[in-house]
Amino acid sequence: MSLTDVYITRTAAYFPNDPVSNDEMEEYLGVINEQASKSRRIVLRNNGIKNRFYALTKEGKATHTNAQMASLAIRKLMNENAGELASLELISCATSSPEQLMPSHAVMVHGWLPETGNVEVVSPSGVCCAGMHAMKYAYMSIKLGQVEKAVSSASERLSPSLRADKFELEVQKLSELQENPYVSFDKDFLRWMLSDGAGAFLLENKPNAHGISLRIDWIEGYSFANEMDPCMYMGAEKLADGTLKSYLDYEPQQVIEQSIMSIKQDVKLLGANIVTLGFKKLKLSLDKKGIDASEIDYFLPHMSSYFFEDKMYDEMKSLGMEIPKEKWFTNLGTKGNVGAASIYLMLDELFNSGKLQKGQKVLLGVPESSRFSYVFSLLTVC
Known about the structure:
about 375 residues, ACP_syn_III_C, alpha+beta, acyltransferase, transferase, Beta-ketoacyl-ACP synthase III, Peroxisomal Thiolase, Chain A, domain 1, acyltransferase activity
């Protein structure tokens, strides 16, 4: 079977509302138990994020759904044109924050796009790597000749789960038990890390007739879940033996009183492993494909925090694949950590920056801390 080349021919991003500065965050997220967060300033100083976006008002009212934001990014991608939307054959949509357990996120996105007709939809689950999995499904479908034109998207709406009112019953219960009425750091930490938004790519079996395209040379993923305990999780509690206890196995009142549905991060496990585990696999991918790091013109690393930037650089250098910092491209500081959508938002900004020249190589790197997964992809500008 002959395999066709696959190209990203357009990119788009959608952000809800105006950017929210560090000083405004608690106006949107609120304070827990009428006490300012102990960790907010420390976390913000380390993560280097200056602005982020929330799909809600200061009163906590939703302005967009997750699926709606993804559909708006796709509409923007297709120039708000019903005919172009109707030409799609596949829609692959990822998120780590679906707003329902059923139906799938992708069919909810499709529900906002009636012009597309009865196309195939697929919804890869996961966390930050899910956006890359969505892209890989679309890439493989075109590569095999099953479709000629597909959209992949990634979106997040985590802000509602970060609001103070989601933790009030927990701190009230702690107060009743005469314990420290502060939400634990593993929950509070992520309140200052995450952002809302959506991105989308158009993938086709031929490059743009006018303007640049990005040929997808390869996409490779690796999981360390066979070696590592969960590190970031939601809808569960981590037990002493490292396993997760599902919200389904708690009494309804316990789910509320212990904020079981909140998103949590084992910060010690994160810091000790997120960089060292995955980048040796990037070295393996580059070596397998005969690519030297000196050939990379742009490196787009998904980072939850600038805290990891130097650690990532040092690790890559130690593995013999140093990419100078001037070749790194990220918009974490201005757009925030948008989980699965972050790599879409970075690539969209670079794609539309006017900086890319034909023949250049762009390397994407997406670590995921949930149970330590990584996806890497090499693109060539053409």
